[in-house]
Amino acid sequence: MTPDEHTDEGKPIEGAPDGAEAFGDPDINRHYERYRGEYPIVVEGLTNSFGEQVIHQDLSLKVRRGEILGVVGGSGTGKSVLMRSIIGLQTPDEGHIEVFGRSLTDGDPEEVVGVRNRWGVLFQGGALFSTLTVGENVEVPLKQFYPGIESALMHEIARYKVMLSGLPEEAVSKYPSELSGGMKKRAGLARALALDPELLFLDEPTAGLDPIGAAAFDRLTKELQATLGLTVFLITHDLDTLHEICDRVAVLADHKVIAVDTVPNLMKLDHPWIQEYFNGPRGRAALTAQALDELRKHMDKPVAVNAIKALDNDAGRKA
Predict the structure, then answer these.
(1) 126-129 own/partner pairs: CB under 8 Å, 24+ apart
(2) DSSP H helical ranges for 193-260
(3) Which of 28, 183, 256, 265 has a CA positioned 20 to 30 A from the CA of residue 164?
(4) Which residues pair with 46 in a beta bridge?
(5) CA distance 134 to 126
(6) Would you call 272 helix, strand, or coil by DSSP?
């Protein structure tokens, strides 16, 4: 049973697993269907400002169910503000936000609470509680939304989520100060997965990681999305991440989302920021690296070997 699975009506359905009644808490005993609509996130006409500084103006965005949506934009374009607006940490000046078909901007407060346990969030840097162990950090959302779960079961869930995030089992008892930067990210991811979410929000998950660590985190994100059926809202500056795992990319500029499309299609647009970002030196390097990775999968074919040599030589000349 996944405790955060709900129908749009918020009513239980038949088919709860055996033993569900043993939890005691009626909220835990409910078994719900996952969201089946096309767009689990819908943002319309969003406006955010801080004093006289306008961050968003008439911003609209739809996120498709089951996709990994990358969100990019220059510094100060409000990528994190957009995420915070969607998850209810930032109250917009204007606009309408729906998650799983329910309004978060003008809906019933009781309904909003029933939506928030269906997403998980990895903030920049992990945002772990420094005085709690990794396992205790993972248990925080469980205690908040499902206080009736017995301690032994809660510890077991936390242990499983830690291992699901790619950390060794012994990391459960470690404190954040004992973890590397990459391990902190994975611990934060484990907490984001605690409630078996349908939506996963990732804010700069690979920032500060070395290339090997960043690539490993990208692979983990893709594997989790495919295995758990997640919809992922991913804020990033990492061009490799955009090329490797994002189904579509939303570009924030001029106070709104100016384009949402695949990377190849975005590269064809003539907006100056998009051209500089995707077709600049870093963008070309990321594209070359992706091409090399694809070609190396076909090393048994002479055309692939020759192409790799040509790309490597070209990269060497430019260096």
Answers:
(1) 126/176, 126/184, 126/185, 126/187, 126/188, 127/188, 128/176, 128/184, 128/187, 128/188, 128/191, 129/176
(2) 211-228, 239-245
(3) 28
(4) 59
(5) 11
(6) helix
Instruction: Report the alpha-carbon distance of residue 319 to residue 313 in Å, rounded.
Output: 10
* pLDDT reported for residue 312: 57
Mean pLDDT to the nearest integer, 201-207: 95
> Can you tell me the distance from the alpha carbon of 273 to that of 269, in angstroms, rounded to the nearest whole number?
10
Instruction: Report the sign of the C-alpha dihedral through residues 105, 109, 115, 120, in that order.
Output: positive
Q: Rounded to an integer, what distance in angstroms lies between the CA atom of residue 172 and that of residue 137?
A: 9
Residue type, 182: G
- The backbone torsions φ and ψ at residue 12, rounded to the nearest 5 degrees and listed phi first, read -70, 155
- Paired tokens of 242: 């955009």
**What does R_g of the chain's alpha carbons equal in angstroms?**
21
Residue 218, pLDDT > 80, answer: yes
Which tokens is 216 given?
Answer: 């490993």
| Helices assigned H by DSSP within 55-150 | 79-86, 109-116, 134-145
Question: Shortest CA distance to 198 belongs to which of 74, 316, 63?
Answer: 63
Q: Do the beta carbons of residue 195 and residue 138 sit within 8 Å?
A: no
In whole numbers, what is the pLDDT of the chain averaged over residues?
83
Secondary structure percentages of the chain, helix, strand, coil, to 5: 45, 20, 35
Q: DSSP secondary-structure letter at 83?
A: H
72 in Cβ contact with 79 (< 8 Å): yes
Polymer length in residues for the chain: 319
Say how far apart CA 67 and CA 226 lie, in whole Å: 9
3-state class (DSSP) for residue 279: helix
Backbone angles phi, psi at 59, to 5 degrees: -85, 135
SS3 label, residue 76: coil
Which neighbouring-strand residues pair with 203? Answer: 235
- The two structure tokens encoding residue 239: 């061009």
CB 161 within 8 A of CB 190: yes
